[in-house]
Specification:
The protein is α+β, with helices and mostly antiparallel strands. It has 10 helices and 11 strands. The strands form 2 sheets. It has a 7-stranded antiparallel β-sheet, with helices on one face. Helix 2 packs antiparallel against helix 3 and helix 5 packs across helix 6.
Amino acid sequence: MQQSHHFPTFTDQPYFCFPESAGHYKDYSAHYVRREAGALNNFNIHLIVGGTGYVEVDGQIHTLQRGDAILYFPLQEQIYYSSQDDPWDVIWVHYYGDNLREYLIQHGFHRSPLWTLRQTAGWEQAHTRLLEEAEAYKLLHLATLSTLTYALIAEFVSQAVPQSTGIISNTPRRIEALLPLMQKEACQPFSLEEWAARAGVSTYYFCKLFRKSVLMSPLDFITLCRLQVSKQWLLERKQTTIREIAMDAGYPSVSYFNRRFLQQEGITPTEYRKLYERGN
């Protein structure tokens, strides 16, 4: 399968970023790209979602498999290709925009073209939406194309780690699978032992894997989920007291709820409710 969509380059466009092309190649063993330095004036990201591929960097060949990604800056030499025996399943986007170089350098993405995503689902979903938009509307919704491209960049920035760190190799996908359930049950009493058991690991290893995958502790994640739902309730349940919302959100005391809310949001729950009491 070879699916690709191409867009004209806008030399004077108002968006932070815009796609030049995007696509999806699967079971395409003949996929081989070699571009000399200076040939392509776009950024591009390739994410491997299956199979095996290779990339050459400074004369060395690196093997890429599911979750691995390539990020090229404009004008860089590019050499990458699919395995003949196990053709890769790769999704990709070429993009450009004002201040992108500074933005990516600020986040350290100039260090290497070789990366691995902690979680691939967000990038895959954003990429699918971009392809669907391109297929259905082509250039009719320029702002939407830009927004979807930015979603890909933001997901990459939030999830990518350099391959050389080796962080991802022992991170089970089961942590990623537990996140929606943890969010759904966040207001219930939190038990680290219970969640570790659901993942099938010790509490120590669960916390270690969770930090590597989500970049925060399990309790910090639960706290953010509780704060999110409590902010919603503060505005929707206008007749409910702060104490009742604290209890419903999983906090054992209103003072602790107030303290955590203030630490995270910079204002108290009461101040937040008053700030938005007349609407957003």
